[in-house]
Design goal:
alpha+beta, 17 helices, globular
């Protein structure tokens, strides 16, 4: 049978793990071991790549509100190939298992980077988040849920987190859903406006007020099963959203009407559990943003090796090399930021409210990395689309989808202004910057090649924090997003230099120096950058992994 998809994508059929040496080097540097994800890389580069594009263009999920017997079912019908993909990812590849099997949670995020498609990965992320909260804060009676959510039982379960309501969005203190106790249960009443996995989820986490508890710190967290104790539908799905991307995940509106639930953790502590669970998913968002950018980069890179203009391959034109270099160093900085922060999270994962300094430092980094990676993904996918010319704007080819998909990453799990506000809280109230500055002092002490640049980046990081601390709240908010960008890009440059110095891989040192010039100083490269580009842009070549 003719493999039709190979004619419309330049990276279909390639192993997306094996050909991505910079990602492998960075992930394994922070993991401290080889992740051996080649089998998933092969699946991500062929079957999954075609499935996600097909779902986006031809067969998105459909809400079925009524069953053949005339009863409300509010169930989402997904294409059988999407269902099979979810089963393979969760049960066969074990994307949600690492943390629950006593391994580093980093492996989960590395697999998410390879999946990349934010619709499929959203379904997995929500399921992973649900399992994480139940595993950490629920009694042993919820173990069957966790087993199903991580693919350790025959009955695969999907999860969801429904916190957002139309009147408040990210302002959870404006929520209006209420809970009333009775019969050893809680009964919820209200609407959840952005409810991803609606109609798919077997169990969901949702927030509600009860009694006289008001404001964000009065919220409690509840476990909401799809069916109530009598086996009937426990809530209704009003509709599914019409979206420009992420079409493989159904996002709907949920109506809670005396819906049965059980409280998770302590009453009035939901804001802590939700914030922690959002940290889990914000790192998923960062991993996905980087993965999306990598797919787009690879499409552009391999296209430039085939397409001829003015008698030469695109890749032979210096301007195209410049574009690929801009994209690659931005992506490598984003990957380094992401996996450094995942490493911090892995080391602080056991802490619980009121949390310790390690957790607060991780949280501060998470706000920064979420913002930088989302912005970078949007830039890189736009550049990759442009490099294809008019073909990049045609929906019949996959490259335009990656740009559409990237545009959700700045919005999901709190837009940039939310990240900036939360960053301010982590600095001004939690003093998380103290741990951060000490850590980067230690990191920089290990850098020899590029030390002057690392010192300059540290000064920018420290000065940005000093500016925040010197301002009143209004002025701090006004400048926060700009300063967050300076901090994030400065950290990325330091990390690339650190990885290069520690591993002996000079390509990362060169990437760090160029990153500093382009994205920290915001100046043009030096004249020898054209020669440096020759080694950095060829990410699939074995030389990128050599300790040169």
């Amino acid at each position: 049978m003719d493999d039709s998809y190979s004619y419309i994508s330049n990276i279909y059929g390639k192993n997306h793990y094996d050909i991505d040496f910079p990602f492998r080097e960075i992930a394994e540097f922070y993991a401290g071991e080889s992740l051996n994800l080649s089998s998933l890389g092969a699946y991500a580069g062929k079957q999954l790549y075609e499935i996600t594009d097909y779902i986006d263009k031809i067969s998105p999920p459909v809400l079925k509100m009524w069953g053949i017997d005339g009863k409300r079912i509010d169930s989402v019908l997904i294409n059988p190939v999407e269902k099979h993909a979810l089963e393979r990812l969760i049960k066969e590849f074990g994307i949600n298992r690492p943390y629950f099997q006593g391994k580093s949670i980093m492996e989960h995020y590395a697999m998410g980077y390879l999946v990349a498609d934010p619709g499929i990965y959203c379904i997995i992320t929500l399921t992973h988040q649900t399992a994480y909260a139940l595993h950490k804060y629920a009694p042993d009676s919820f173990r069957d849920y966790v087993s199903g959510l991580i693919g350790n039982s025959n009955n695969l379960l999907l999860g969801a987190t429904w916190f957002t309501e139309i009147q408040g969005g990210s302002d959870l203190g404006a929520n209006q859903t209420v809970a009333e106790p009775g019969n050893n249960l809680w009964y919820l009443k209200g609407d959840k406006y952005f409810a991803s996995n609606a109609g798919l989820a077997d169990v969901s986490l949702t927030s509600a007020f009860h009694g006289n508890n008001l404001g964000a710190k009065g919220l409690s967290l509840f476990v909401l099963p799809r069916k109530n104790s009598e086996g009937n539908l426990n809530y209704r799905v009003r509709r599914l959203k019409e979206k420009s991307a992420t079409k493989s995940v159904p996002s709907g509106e949920v109506e809670l009407e005396n819906s049965e639930a059980q409280m998770l953790g302590d009453a009035g502590k939901a804001i802590y559990y939700i914030t922690e669970d959002l940290m889990v998913s914000r790192l998923d968002n960062a991993a996905a943003a980087c993965g999306i950018a990598r797919k787009a980069y690879l499409e552009a890179y391999y296209y430039s090796m085939k397409r001829k203009t003015f008698g030469s391959l695109l890749l032979e034109h210096p301007g195209i090399k410049r574009d690929l270099l801009d994209m690659e160093i931005l992506l490598e900085g984003s990957v380094a930021l992401t996996f450094k922060t995942i490493d911090l999270f892995n080391k602080s994962i056991k802490t619980k409210p009121p949390y310790d300094d390690d957790y607060n430092y991780t949280r501060l980094m998470t706000h920064i990395v979420k913002n930088i990676t989302a912005e970078s993904s949007s830039i890189i996918t736009q550049m990759a689309t442009e490099l294809h010319g008019g073909i990049g704007f045609l929906s019949e080819f996959p490259i335009e989808r990656w740009h559409r998909e990237a545009l959700i990453t700045p919005i999901w799990e709190g837009a940039s202004n939310i990240q900036a506000l939360d960053m301010l809280e982590a600095i001004m109230k939690k003093k998380a910057h103290i741990k951060m500055l000490l850590d980067f002092q230690d990191i920089i002490s290990k850098i020899s090649d590029g030390r002057e640049i690392a010192d300059s980046c540290y000064m920018l990081l420290s000065d940005s924090i000093d500016k925040i601390l010197s301002m009143d709240n209004s002025h701090a908010q006004f400048h926060a997003k700009y300063l967050m960008g300076i901090m994030g890009h400065s950290i990325a440059a330091i990390l690339l230099l650190h990885i290069g110095n520690e591993t002996g891989n000079k390509d990362f040192i060169e990437a760090g120096k160029l990153y500093f010039q382009k994205y920290v100083k915001k100046e043009d490269y030096d004249k020898d950058a054209l020669e440096t580009a020759e080694s950095l842009i060829h990410v699939e070549r074995q030389e990128r992994s050599l300790k040169n």
